[in-house]
Design goal:
Keywords: Cell membrane, Disulfide bond, Ion channel, Ion transport, Leucine-rich repeat, Membrane, Repeat, Signal, Transmembrane, Transmembrane helix, Transport. It comes from Amphiprion ocellaris (Clown anemonefish). This is LRRNT domain-containing protein. This protein is α/β, with parallel strands linked by helices and 291 residues long. Among the domains are: 160 residues, Leucine-rich repeat, LRR (right-handed beta-alpha superhelix), CATH 3.80.10.10; 33 residues. Helix 3 links the parallel strand 10 and strand 11. The structure holds 2-acetamido-2-deoxy-beta-D-glucopyranose (NAG) (2 copies). The site of one 2-acetamido-2-deoxy-beta-D-glucopyranose has 3 residues, from loops.
């Protein structure tokens, strides 16, 4: 028995030292309740801690003052599955920061100060299932291809942002979407909203608040009404959501067509006149010849 323990001793020492090293790897002011979780929530952090173990899977950084994420963040922590950055001071995401992740399933960027979600932000994050982007009051721009590669995305939160309009092509390439939050934005029900309205009407089962929970301002008097009070007829005078530029092009091409028509008829008229004179002239010649 005793020799056996003797033999085991170095082995046990090795295991415990490995465990201890892991323990030491937990960033100060963070908790590491298990091997794959690092919890630094609410620690007054002004940057992402340096000494996070590279094999972290759940990283909780909510309720801090973190203003940016290094652009190689997810290259470094490539095992991350769950990343919570809720209630920080993020104002922008460098393109590519989040696009390299293939394992990330849950990402919370809610309650930050983001202004724009550009088309290159998420790239091909095919594992992402839940994306929270709500409560970013200055978020007014979502790039047309912002969510294009997110084929597994089931839940998308964009509530209580500063959005007045959203290109419907942002939502169309999301085959797995089950839940979409858009309430609390200052939506404008002008002609730019027409296509989104049609999409929302067809997909209203995905809206937890339904159409009645989303309000928009009417273009004429700015009155806010729930979408449930509107119908596709409300956008009828938009003629397929023509923009001002479209109208200008239509008017301009109308003018060009009229000018071309006037020129053509003038040309025709002069040709006819010419022929008439010619034939009159030759008639006269004939008459003269007859004399
Ligand atoms: C956001 O984080 C700050 C700083 O830690 C905290 O004081 C505040 O209570 C948090 N807000 C919410 C809604 O959790
Ligand atoms: C959030 O962004 C706005 C405008 O971009 C800025 O005025 C404001 O100071 C920012 N707030 C914080 C807490 O960073």
């Amino acid at each position: 028995m005793l020799p056996c323990i003797n033999w085991l001793q170095p082995f046990l020492a090795l295991i415990s030292s490995t465990l201890l090293t892991r323990g030491n790897n937990c960033p100060s002011s963070c908790l590491c309740p298990d091997h794959h979780t690092v919890n630094c929530a609410g620690q007054g952090l002004t940057k992402v801690p340096d000494s996070i173990p590279l094999d972290v899977r759940r990283l909780l950084l909510s309720n801090n003052w973190i203003p940016w994420i290094p652009s190689d963040f997810l290259v470094l922590y490539s095992d991350l599955v769950y990343l919570d950055l809720r209630n920080n001071s993020l104002s922008q995401l460098e393109p590519g920061t989040l696009s390299t992740s293939s394992r990330l399933v849950f990402l919370d960027l809610g309650s930050n100060n983001l202004t724009e979600i550009s088309s290159e932000t998420f790239g091909e994050s095919r594992s992402l299932i839940k994306l929270r982007l709500g409560n970013n009051p200055y978020l007014t721009m979502v790039g047309r291809d912002a969510f294009t590669g997110l084929t597994s995305l089931r839940e998308l939160e964009l509530e209580w942002n500063g959005l007045t309009v959203l290109d419907v092509r942002v939502l169309e390439p999301l085959p797995s979407l089950r839940m979409l939050r858009l309430e609390g934005n200052p939506w404008l029900c002008n002609c730019h909203f027409a296509k989104l309205f049609v999409w929302l009407k067809e997909n209203q089962h995905k809206l937890p608040t339904g159409m009645e929970g989303i309000e928009c301002s009417l273009p004429l008097d700015g009155r806010r009404v729930p979408l449930s009070l509107l119908s596709e007829d409300s956008f009828r005078e938009c003629h397929g959501a023509l923009t001002l530029t479209d109208y200008l092009i239509v008017i301009f091409s109308g003018i060009s067509v009229s000018v071309a028509a006037i020129m053509a008829s003038f040309f025709l008229a002069s040709t006819v006149h010419c022929f008439q004179r010619l034939s009159k002239g030759s008639k006269g010649d004939e008459e003269e010849g007859n004399d």
